[in-house]
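Supplementary Text 2. Reproducibility record for the structural model of the 305-residue chain.

All settings were left at their defaults, and a single model was retained for analysis rather than an ensemble. We include the record here because the model underlies the residue-level annotations in Supplementary Table 4.
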Amino acid sequence: MTDQLKKYLFEDRSVRVQAVRLHQTWLDAQENHQYPPAVQRLLGELMAAAALLAANIKFEGSLVLQIQGGGPIALVVVECQSDLSLRATVKVREGHEVPADGSMQSLLNADGQGRFIVVLDPRRKVPGQQTYQGIVPLEGETVAQALQHYMKASEQLDTRLWLQAGDQYAAGLLVQRLPDQGGAARAESTADTLARATLLADTLEPDELVRADIDTLIHRLYWEETLIAFEPIPVRWHCTCTRERVAGMLRTLGEREVEDILAEQGSVRVTCDFCGKPYKFDAVDCSGLFAPARPMPEQDPPTVH
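Retained model, structure tokens:
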């Protein structure tokens, strides 16, 4: 199992540590795309972060991380289901060049109007339950800093993130203080544990997150600590697009518009925003989209011998 997330608790159960490392999932996300290095880094870090946060949601559904604003990149979206299946998309503005050394701020917040949006969407809502959406200004130079700002402002949780992405791997580490359960002495102990966990994580070397497997990484950082380890959770890429869904979308356009596209281009081509998979509908395919369903011919009931 190469793509997985692992959870740990410090012995006093006041601080959680989580690590995720994506390889095949990350390759699948890039399969039909040619991302510039700056976009690749940004998207990979956001995917690792989404898995780290989705691992803690208490319902069946999805967590969506979205960054939008001015600059060469208009939008970055990562969706992670509660089973840690991921999909993602990036919208680059037409005619805008993406510099290789571009930062999150220069790529998405050139006008100062950038926003970081977190959506929690339960699949089966109980009465009174609604989709949650939190929006904060896009602050910080990195995805990690922007998410730390969001968690502090919206969740009131002390959270630190370390995120890295290259062409082969995307990885992340989360250190988070759990809600206090006790008096002042307990709070002081928890603060000490958080400070120690953070100090050790700050010793991460450049690219160590993507170079080292999770077990090696956690041992290197916390070998003097007593950690409670949980079973690893697999992570995978999963796009929900199908030819049938694309066909349904084309039907909503209407027969006349589809015919106009067909007349102009010879076929209708649709590319999935998430996985980049291309779908082609020729004249015969398009004709079938709007053909009335034929009733099944009546048949005599089978004879029983």
